[in-house]
Design a protein that fits this description.
Elements lengths: L5 E4 L14 E6 L26 H18 E11 L9 H11 L3 E9 L24 E8 L15 H7 L3 E3 L6 H4 L8 H10 L5 E4 L6 H8 L3 E6 L2 H13 L9 H11 L8
Parallel strand pairs: 1-8, 2-3, 2-7, 4-6, 7-8
Antiparallel strand pairs: 3-5, 4-5
Helix pairs in contact: 1-2, 5-6
The protein binds S-adenosylmethionine.
Length: 279
């Protein structure tokens, strides 16, 4: 029998076959960016196992198979969040290619958030400096693409932990926060910061939801899901990273036991405002 709150060491999409149909509320993930991690000039640390240098068409076809399998395991009304960056200063439009195949897979586009990483790398690649011949446009932002299955409105009700000021700030589709700075400490070369899954999980799911990450990496989505009283399912191809995830999950304090049902009810009543902007 399939158990929630586990991390599976395996390669998606095949490894996802064990997940029953229609049990996942929210997927928050960041696939490898196919930027030859380890060999590009911005990041000299490769993944422990995965080779990040497929042909672009092969990479997109592979991701499409993964998100087709995600569609199967999502509930009707479930959501998918994909954090991705484009390649080569925007000339490899990975985000647009993903949006295209997600539509082909019957997902409904929900929103597109720009994550401004508050960080510009050293400006040495100018292309043609001071000339319109072939200037470069470095991209200090990434995409956070949100899709849903069947319905933009959640088809189940639940309790929320979203606060009013969080809703107001996060519902603007321009997010500014710094990238993860603890990658050496965790031993993973391409993590997103906890702020990213925190916002997605609180904005897009109720307490107790099932949150999945098919490309778990160092487990940031899973750790945050646990801390926010959601169930989690993770997949990661590298056993080295799975060990890191399990350590992190063990260490990460879970707030679950600290919150009484009464507290959750209060949050529910005070903070949950049904604003139906799709109607
Ligand atoms: C960008 S990282 C994810 C980082 C994660 N968001 C975090 O904050 O820790 C992508 C991960 O996908 C993993 N990966 C690559 N191919 C995979 C596959 N077929 N199945 C599962 N994981 C895979 C890589 O090993 C890598 O850890």
């Amino acid at each position: 029998m399939f158990e929630l709150n586990t991390v599976i060491n395996g390669a998606v999409p095949e490894a996802m076959k064990v997940v029953p149909d229609g049990i996942v509320d929210l997927i928050v993930t960041s696939p490898p960016y196919n930027v030859d991690l380890g060999n590009n000039k911005y990041n000299k640390t490769p993944y422990s196992l995965y080779k990040d240098n497929k042909e672009h068409f092969e990479y997109i076809a592979w991701l499409k198979m993964v998100f087709e399998e995600c569609y199967r395991v999502l509930k009707s009304g479930g959501r998918v969040v994909i954090n991705i960056g484009d390649g080569k200063n925007g000339s490899v439009p990975t985000g647009s290619d993903i949006t295209q195949f997600m539509k082909d897979l019957n997902y409904i586009p929900y929103t597109h958030i720009i994550w401004e990483k508050s960080q510009v790398g050293s400006r040495t690649s100018w292309g043609s400096f001071n000339s319109p011949s072939s200037p470069s446009f470095p991209t200090p932002f990434e995409h956070i693409l949100v899709f849903c299955k069947d319905s933009k409105k959640l088809l189940e009700t639940g309790k929320t932990d979203l606060k009013g000021d969080e809703f107001i700030e996060w519902s603007l589709a321009l997010w500014r926060f710094a990238p993860e700075i603890r990658m050496k400490e965790f031993g993973h070369p391409a993590m997103f910061p906890e702020e990213l899954p925190k916002r997605c999980i609180k904005m897009l799911s109720y307490i107790g939801a099932v949150v999945m990450d098919p490309f778990a990496g160092a487990g940031t989505t899973l750790v945050v899901a646990k801390a926010l009283k959601r169930n989690y399912i993770g997949f990661e191809i590298s056993s080295k990273y799975v060990d890191i995830i399990n350590e992190r999950l063990k260490d990460e304090p879970s707030f679950w036991d600290d919150w009484s049902d009464e507290q959750i009810d209060i949050i529910d009543e005070v903070e949950k405002k049904e604003i139906s902007f799709w109607d």
